[in-house]
Amino acid sequence: MRIGEIAALVGVTPRAVRHYHHLGLLPEPPRRANSYREYGFRDAVLLARIRRLTELGLGLDEVRDALADDEGRELVEILEELDEDLGRQEVAIRDRRVRLATLLAEARAGRLTADGPVSPELTRVLADLGDLPDSPMAVKDREVLALIDTVIPEAERARLMGALRGMAEGAGEVYGLLDALADAQPDDPRVTRAAAALAALLPDELGVQLPAEGADGLADVFFADLAPAQSAAVRQAVRLVAERQEGTP
């Protein structure tokens, strides 16, 4: 058989056969006088096995390991590992579908915000905040929350969003105070008032800490996007919360 014939027989492409030759999975067969490869029955059996293994989800390196063990003991181990991996993927897909079902229900009820899709926990936080006045700081805050919602671990996200749910009342006033600092200087007296209002809004269980400059990429991006007076107010609020936590029995 020529390469096109063996490829058609096994159900792969001639390009795949050449690739398997290149990787050493399929030995090169003898060639005819005209330099064409001449494939036999054994080549077709091996090529069919390679196809079956790849269809099971094995990578080509794993296929090579499986083919190198004539007694098939390593193949059993590889297939067991593949089965475990597929099981983990199955659980992950199931979890994602559960989350998607929650988001879909929120969307159908008209409660999914423009920041979505976000986690169910953040969806509830944003629903609590409701329709705030036209506030640039509120928009920025929602964007930051959506980013945090994506990048932090699931367990930490649940804790954080749970703490944030009690902040809806009074958020509008704080956003207004921070918006007013957009063109102010860090030493503006209004910085202290805004910081005190924000600190009063932040719950102790939020565990707010101020990272050192350059130590936290997310914090650095957040503060870089604020006006100088707004940054000063938020940093001061974080310090006030830390002092309050230290003074709590």
UniProtKB/TrEMBL annotation:
SUPFAM superfamilies: Putative DNA-binding domain (SSF46955)
Keywords of the record: DNA-binding
HTH merR-type domain mapped to chain residues: 1-69
A Pfam family the protein falls into: MerR_1
SMART domains for this protein: HTH_MERR
Gene Ontology MF term list: DNA binding; DNA-binding transcription factor activity
Gene3D superfamilies xrefs: 1.10.1660.10
Name of this chain's protein: MerR family transcriptional regulator
